[in-house]
Design goal:
- With 305 residues, the protein is mostly helical.
- Among the domains are: 139 residues, no CATH class; 48 residues, no CATH class.
- The protein has 15 helices and two strands.
- It has a two-stranded antiparallel sheet.
- A hairpin with a 3-residue loop joins strand 1 and strand 2.
- Helix 4 crosses helix 7.
- It is globular.
- The model has no long low-confidence stretch (mean pLDDT 96).
Length: 305
């Protein structure tokens, strides 16, 4: 099956499984294809990964006349948001829809540990309308305000830890300390890659892939400084939530070895990180990304994965 066919087939699955874990299938499939996987490898990965997923909930309809931001942050609203964005895309193409939707969603870009943002960016690159609708819907239903309120429940999920960090004294001061200018995203992306290479922290991994995702979406954003400000707030929350400390980076592996490891892997996070690092190096240059990719591959080998 082709990537497009696999993405269409994947619409039968829910956006989450096992009590709040994000469905990475569509993102990992695009990353694999970009790294060089053929249709057979994509189909094999999809078949294996799908075993952990849960069926999508019953279809719903967005009530006519209701303002679409009215249910931001309601997990149960994913089916209705799927319907809304799918209908929207029948009337406007992504180039028209995204500049309208992204400014509303960006203040909540930490949604589901940035996976709404990441899934949306992957869908844009895949050019798949239903997957784009599903990614936007996931971002909307898991919208993360980071307005000082602690999480309503605590299951140990990254976004809950981010809410806890944002509710602590001094959080707003830390956000204000981030310089917002044309270079903000690159600085945060590079710092994330450097810290991941030296720590291997799982939350920091999501900072690397989310910075890549925001860069992909920037051409559809009319106010990049506002986007950088929103992302910086979520970035600081995640950084404070994880408390990652730098250690000794792994030995740097050549890119052909890193790509081969990702193509052979069943670990969706390894696949996505290697892909994002390669794309970020192409955009920004420097060795930060190769060191980060080397860390995730070396760690997987040490764990026997």
């Amino acid at each position: 099956m082709s990537l497009a066919a696999l993405l269409a087939d994947g619409a039968r699955f829910d956006a989450e499984y096992r009590g709040g874990l994000s469905n990475h299938l569509p993102m990992a499939l695009l990353a694999l294809q970009r790294l060089g996987a053929g249709d057979a490898r994509l189909a094999a990965f999809a078949a294996g990964y799908a075993k952990r997923l849960e069926p999508a909930p019953a279809a719903a309809v967005w009530p006519a006349g209701d303002a679409w931001p009215g249910r931001l942050g309601e997990r149960e609203a994913w089916p209705a948001y799927r319907a809304l964005f799918s209908e929207w895309l029948t009337h406007e193409d992504p180039e028209a829809l995204l500049p309208q939707a992204l400014p509303v969603l960006l203040p909540g870009c930490g949604a589901a540990a940035f996976h709404g943002l990441i899934r949306t960016a992957h869908a844009v690159q895949a050019g798949h309308a239903q997957e784009l609708a599903d990614g936007l819907a996931y971002w909307a239903c898991r919208y993360l305000a980071l307005d000082g309120r602690p999480p309503a429940a605590e299951h140990g999920l990254i976004f809950e830890q981010m809410q806890q960090a944002a509710a602590k004294h001094g959080f707003d001061k830390a956000v204000d300390a981030v310089a917002i200018d044309a270079g903000t995203l690159e600085r945060l992306a590079r710092e994330s890659a450097t810290l991941y290479a030296a720590s291997g922290d799982f939350t920091v991994l999501h900072l690397v892939t989310s910075a890549h995702a925001l860069r992909v979406l920037l051409p559809f954003i009319d106010e990049p400084m506002a986007a950088a400000q929103a992302y910086a707030r979520a970035w600081v929350a995640a950084r404070k939530a994880c408390g990652a400390r730098a250690g000794t980076p792994a030995a740097v592996l050549p890119w052909d070895e890193l790509v081969a490891a990702a193509l052979a892997a069943d670990d969706e996070h390894l696949i996505k990180l290697v892909d994002s690092c390669r794309e970020e190096e192409r955009a920004y240059g420097g060795g930060d990304w190769q060191r980060a990719a080397s860390r995730v591959v070396t760690a997987a080998r040490s764990a026997g994965r």
